[in-house]
Design a protein that fits this description.
Elements lengths: L16 H13 L6 H7 L4 E10 L5 E12 L5 E8 L4 H17 L5 E8 L7 H14 L9 E5 L5 H15 L23 H16 L8 E5 L3 H13 L2 E7 L2 E4 L26 E3 L1 H5 L5 E4 L18 E3 L8 H9 L3 E3 L1 H4 L2 H15 L5 H26 L3 H20 L4
Parallel strand pairs: 3-4, 3-5, 6-7, 6-10, 10-11, 11-12
Antiparallel strand pairs: 1-2, 2-4, 7-8, 8-9
Helix pairs in contact: 1-3, 1-13, 3-13, 4-5, 6-7, 6-11, 6-12, 11-12, 12-13
Protein name: Glutamate dehydrogenase
Organism: Haloterrigena turkmenica (strain ATCC 51198 / DSM 5511 / JCM 9101 / NCIMB 13204 / VKM B-1734 / 4k) (Halococcus turkmenicus)
Pfam families: ELFV_dehydrog (PF00208), ELFV_dehydrog_N (PF02812)
């Protein structure tokens, strides 16, 4: 998932995605009758592929980069998850993120498992030609590990629709036929789905809307702050604005703008429209990203990077509801503090699952060679998100669980049932 980075939080707890995912797994497993052997299997990926990727730079020099693909679990279907180009990509990070993808697909009841991968590179240091060559060679290096019925990558940090087009083309050339279903997040002209790019933000907005109603408020009377005005944050903010919510603050890497009477989200440039352009927009007040999280609002949406709500600032969160737009923005310790303070946290594996859901729609369109209209995609996503919300809400109501615990219970019951049905190969 592409997001806008937030860097002015001086003290960030460095907790790995893998550590957090395993702890969340243990916490949720305590609430259901799940075979401990299944839990132990889910703590480990099926495999992690590491490859070396030689790249001839534009100046003729050859540089070798490292790439990874973590495949966590495929009991319910092919592995599914993003490819990110970032200097901090590690095997451990890919494993943790692939675990989250497994839970996310199960919460949404999609016939996928979790995967994640990437290349250790700063994409800003690559020319367009270098990025294309790197992508095509990466596709060749992991060609035996991916496929429309095996493992289906998608865009993530540092990658986009063009990256997916290059990857699909390189894979297809080696297969001897066009295989659009090998990746999702492509342009519609080569088998992509309308509505894919804005889908994670749309799903965040839907969950905000449902949560506000669940707790007895009207969306027209609700205030929202959004940290990270990238593809997730901007689309969520604009849709909520359209539905009547008051968006009082948004931010990018340089800081936040604040207007207690509400910002016109359509005129504030998203990261795609003008990188790092939020703070150039005219607004009554400027804030830091840390101060944005601590605003007295009905809903705060962390939609930038992970680990921004920690044990160091959880006591300062004044929002009634936190809806996680990015992956892993709340540490486990912060989760406990927020729960003790009765701050409701709607987890990432539910809130931003619109991306993988529309990726599933794209995969179906590719397999059937029949493209859907944008209207159908939006309608189908609304239906899937409300269904997932209802499943998680039922667990919250019947078991008196936190939202994250309830989402994991829904996911683990579905994964556990599939593993029990399929059994363990001797």
């Amino acid at each position: 998932m592409t997001s806008t980075q937030v860097t002015d939080q001086d003290e960030t707890e460095h907790i790995s995605a893998l550590e957090t995912a395993r702890r969340q797994l243990d916490d949720a497993a305590a609430y259901i009758d799940l075979n401990r052997g299944v839990v132990e299997r889910l703590k480990h990926p099926s495999r992690v592929v590491e490859v070396s990727i030689p790249l001839e730079r534009d100046n003729g020099e050859v540089e070798v980069f490292t790439g990874y693909r973590a495949q966590h679990d495929d009991v319910r279907g092919p592995y599914k998850g993003g490819l990110r180009y970032h200097p901090d990509v590690t095997a451990e990070e890919c494993i943790g993120l692939s675990m989250w993808m497994t839970w996310k697909c199960a919460v949404m009841d999609l016939p996928f498992g979790g995967g994640k991968g990437g290349i250790v590179v700063n994409p800003k240091d690559l020319s367009d030609d270098e990025k294309e060559r790197l992508t095509r060679r990466f596709a060749e290096e992991i060609r035996d590990e991916v496929g429309p019925n095996q493992d289906i990558p998608a865009p993530d940090m540092g990658t986009d629709v063009q990256t997916m087009s290059w990857f699909m083309d390189a894979y297809s050339m080696q297969q001897g036929e066009t295989v659009p279903g090998v990746v999702t997040g492509k342009p519609p002209v080569v088998g992509g789905s309308y509505g894919r790019e804005e889908a994670p933000g749309r799903s965040v907005a839907i969950i905000v809307r449902e949560a506000i109603a669940y707790y007895g408020k009207d969306i027209e009377d609700s205030t929202v702050a959004v940290q990270g005005y990238g593809s997730v944050g901007a689309n969520a903010a604009r849709l909520l604005d359209e539905w009547g919510a008051t968006i009082v603050a948004v931010s990018d890497v340089n800081g936040a703008i604040y207007d207690a009477t509400g910002l016109d989200t359509q005129t504030v440039p998203s990261h795609k429209e003008e990188p790092e352009g939020v703070t150039k927009h005219d607004a009554p007040d400027m804030l830091t990203n840390v101060e944005l999280l601590e605003l007295d609002v009905d809903v705060v949406i962390p939609a930038a990077i992970g680990n921004v709500i920690t044990s160091r600032n959880a006591d300062q969160i004044r929002a009634d509801i936190v809806v996680e737009g990015s992956n892993g923005p709340t540490t486990a310790e912060a989760d406990d503090i927020l729960a003790d303070r009765d701050v409701k946290v709607l987890p990432d594996i539910l809130a931003n699952a619109g991306g993988v859901t529309v990726s599933y729609f794209e995969w179906l369109q590719d397999i059937n060679r029949r493209q859907w209209s944008r209207e159908r995609v939006v309608s189908e996503l609304e239906s899937e998100m409300v269904s997932a919300w209802d499943s998680v809400k039922t667990e919250v109501d019947e078991r008196d669980l936190r939202w994250r615990e309830a989402a994991y219970v829904v996911a683990l019951e579905r994964i556990g049932a599939a593993k029990e049905a399929r059994g363990l190969w001797p």
